[in-house]
């Protein structure tokens, strides 16, 4: 067995407005917002372990989904109990549905990062 080098403490999103995007993801996951300044906000997920960071990137360009140019770099898979209920709630808080399959749905967050709900 390989000895780990470290543990994952956060995932960070580049974005034009950290507070706005952090608020969107707080609507998805719950948790507590911890702003550092206008350029950085952490969302502390329930349970107090993992953080999602939101970092201001003035030149932010949304990834293209689907696409082969520059690809999407990374996306989140979010487990949900009911795909339809999750879809209604996500659309209410600003997500955009871009693909629906029987076992997953693909969305874009308010600034264009792709994420999926899975069942």
Automatic annotation (TrEMBL):
Q: Which SUPFAM superfamilies match?
A: Glyoxalase/Bleomycin resistance protein/Dihydroxybiphenyl dioxygenase (SSF54593)
User: Which InterPro entries would you find in this protein's record?
Assistant: Glyas_Bleomycin-R_OHBP_Dase (IPR029068), Glyoxalase_6 (IPR041581), VOC_core (IPR037523)
Which branch of life, at top level? Bacteria
Q: Where is the VOC domain?
A: 7-119
Q: Which residues form the signal peptide?
A: none
Q: Which named protein is this?
A: VOC family protein
């Amino acid at each position: 067995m390989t000895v780990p080098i470290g543990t994952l403490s956060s995932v960070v999103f580049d974005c034009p407005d950290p507070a706005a995007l952090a608020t969107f993801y707080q609507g998805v996951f719950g948790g507590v917002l911890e702003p550092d300044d206008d350029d950085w906000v952490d969302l502390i997920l329930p349970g107090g372990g993992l953080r999602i960071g939101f970092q201001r990137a003035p030149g932010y360009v949304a990834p293209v989904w689907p696409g082969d140019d520059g690809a999407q770099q990374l996306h989140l898979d979010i487990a949900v109990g009911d795909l339809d209920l999750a879809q209604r709630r996500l659309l209410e808080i600003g997500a955009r549905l871009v693909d629906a399959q029987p076992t997953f749905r693909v969305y874009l967050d308010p600034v264009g990062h792709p994420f999926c709900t899975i069942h």
